[in-house]
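Issue 218. Parser rejects a valid record. Input:
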Amino acid sequence: MQIREEKADILIIGGGAAGCFAAITLAEEYPGLSVILTDKANIKRSGCLAAGINALNAYITPGHTPLDYARYAAEDAAGIARGDLLLSMAEGLNRVTAKMEKLGLVIQKDTEGNYVTRGPRNIKINGENIKPLLAAAVNKAANVRVLNHVNMVDYLLSEGKVRGAWGIDITQERIYLVAAGAVICATGGAAGLYRPNHPGHSRHQMWYSPFNTGAGYAMGLRAGAEMTSLEMRFIALRCKDTIAPTGTIAQGLKAAQINAKGEEYQKTYGNTTAQRVHAVVAENLAGRGPCYLKTQGITSEEESNLEKAYLNMAPAQTLRWRETGLSPRTVNVEVEGSEPYIVGGHTAGGYWVAENRATTLAGLFAAGDVAGGAPQKYVTGAFVEGEIAARAAAEFACQNPPSDATAEIKNSVVSAVKKYFTKSPPSTFDADSLEEAMQSVMDEYAGGIKTCYRYTEASLKLADAHLKRLAKLSDSLRAADFYDLMKIFELRERLLLCRVLVSHLAARKETRWPSFAAHLDYPDKDSAYEKYVNSKLVAGEPQIIFRPLVKLPGGEPQ
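Output the parser choked on:
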């Protein structure tokens, strides 16, 4: 079995928003350090920005401050957020936006040359090419080498430190061992844990990138890292069928949410991100659905602007309007919730990190969706975290030069791969069938779409029992090639993350975020749970750790 060994001062795992910006920062500020960036696809069109975006949802608009943004994000998370992380992120939002504009990102401006805002914290952009712009900047960096189509599987550990990682190249069918002085994890969040709106062969037609399997979380858990707030799931309120974002309509047009009777209902439920999803669920359960964004009667110019905006982010929505003839001017846009995700850029789930984005494992730093504690960071917040993590990783790497992987490590990696290529015992199942079974379990017993995102103590116990059984079955999977092997690794990542997520849901015995975490046995908010729910793996089992909240300047919980 072919092994390729590489070495760099810093290894970046994941070439999305945070990973690319970390690489750009290292190229500009630390040209003397060698950097390797690995991506399971190609950084030109990988990650959550692959299709582009039409707005930057985290920006400090005129009349507002970074502290204002941190307070908003903490309030939206019902207090379960890290104020130190929110502030350090918010303070960099406008700086990284200016850098992106220099790289060629088109930011819409009014006749006076000011950015066009979309709500109090957003600005409009023409961002279809945002990922190619990032990729071009990374590829120009003299000290950064990009390894595309390399899917990292696990960290390399030595003397209590993360000293690199290993993975597989599915195009060349070989193992990569990358030794490094420091590692930045920027692999994104986790999709595909639950049965989505479109099951079966279309189960990967979803809002969040289906290739984000929670690999970074799983790697960290297996290595002993501490995670936080995974129970704060994210459920996206989206246009029905296309799963296109609704913010373009809701914020761009100030469109109200209405039910089938034409009633505006949102004020009844509140206006946090979780409450907006819950409102739709509750209206449907009460028999007042379907629910819509009120677009009937908008002008032809507003309709044209909507179509253009979606072409920059979710072209399926514009195509649907054109193909069906059901234009938003004449027919209100129906909305629905997605399946749950773990996305640290929207909610707070991910690695437990210090302000410099160091994880609890020495030598490992996290940024973007995989980093916990700082919700509502979106794209620009991921950029800022990539910048912060890059600087901290560079400082660590300067004191910890990389060393070659030992023969013992090489042998263990080869064994971990070879076991899936043996023909005996034969595999009864394949990764796809077990993945569908996992999604069915999560949907039915751990608060998926089928149960309107609700769960009980009894259902969570059943979920855990079924997940253990599926994990055991996955041990018998066999691969015909490296693509099969990647699918096996992705399944096992998701299965592990599902078990840890279920333990978080069970540990928070309250309903702090309706729909995001709706515990029917504990339907109300409980002040006893104004604390962080964290976890680690101990002997392969999730162990819950409660950590107390601290305060933002001004007394808000962080």
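Fixed in the parser; the record now loads. The CA atoms of residues 199 and 436 lie 8 Å apart.
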